[in-house]
Amino acid sequence: MSDLEVVADDVATEPSAVGRVAAVVFNPIKVDLEAIKAAVKIEEAAAGWGRTLWFETSEEDPGQGPAAQALAAGVSMIVVAGGDGTVRAVAEAVRGHDVVLALLPSGTGNLLARNLDLTLDDLKGSIHSAFTGEDRKIDLAMVDVRRADSRTDTHAYLVMAGFGLDAKMLANTDDELKAKIGWLAYVKAIGLALRDKNQLHLRCTLDDGPARSLRAHTVIVGNCGSLQGNVQLFPDAVVDDGLLDIVLLRPETLFSWFQIVGKIMWENGVLSRTRAGRSVRTKDVRALTYLTGRRFVLTLKGPEKLEIDGDEFGEAIAIRTWVEPGALTVRVPLESAE
């Protein structure tokens, strides 16, 4: 029997006849499906849940369609088995629905899982937590994207969205280097930025404040702050504080780039891990501006490439982004629920 036939047979199951039912939305490229099915079968039986439903993503549909199918089947929980892009797509589809998301981290990023302090590379533990853990409400960030032809499309994101030296460049730094030397691997990404003379000409508004016109090399809006290698791009960001964190990189000289590297890589990535280190943090520098708010509108002089949760989203001439506090419910282990 093919996987497609199994999925069709599972969808036909009546959830109401067996109590709570979960669905797994999985990226077939990034997961070991048979291992997941074996672990799910054990945990669903132990928890007294019905037979889990299975929905596969594709290159054309990274998760919204499969998640919509799961919602139509009346599931209580969707286990997302994939990278940050799959998690983002499923979260976008379940917005406004009373369903819980459980994460089965797969891939190299797993930034939302990292910011929730979930254990990575533990298939059985993650599946066990999905069926036995507690719920935690976190914020969901939304963004309206205006294109050069005046079309507008709306997306959800959980980690970061930005222009310039954005979250994707930082998150996709060489994996072997990250495994060996941690945060120092990001120096390679910053080194590429030193040769990038691109300037964003923008006009922005934060909440009900006045509009500001400025130039920046990079603008990143974050729903949470931690990158791989324990680097804190937004050291004060929390996934459930009802706020967006914004950073503008505005280097004017080579020295200002070194200031940025020092703040993000050294202070946020190393010193902030200890109480003594946090006590010696320096003042903000002009090349690195942090803002917080609930709504942020940014208009560009011309089209620029946009990244959302590490994926390319084409070119945009403007974005309007806002936070929906507590709009997403995720399953976390019992000991980390508080």
TrEMBL record:
GO molecular function, a single term: kinase activity
Pfam family, one: YegS_C
UniProt xrefs under Gene3D superfamilies: 2.60.200.40, Probable inorganic polyphosphate/atp-NAD kinase, domain 1
Coiled coil: none
Domain of life: Bacteria
DAGKc domain boundaries: 67-147
SUPFAM superfamilies the record matches: NAD kinase/diacylglycerol kinase-like (SSF111331)
Keywords tagged on the record: Kinase, Transferase
PROSITE patterns: DAGK (PS50146)
Record PANTHER family: METHYLGLYOXAL SYNTHASE
Name used for this protein in its record: Diacylglycerol kinase family protein
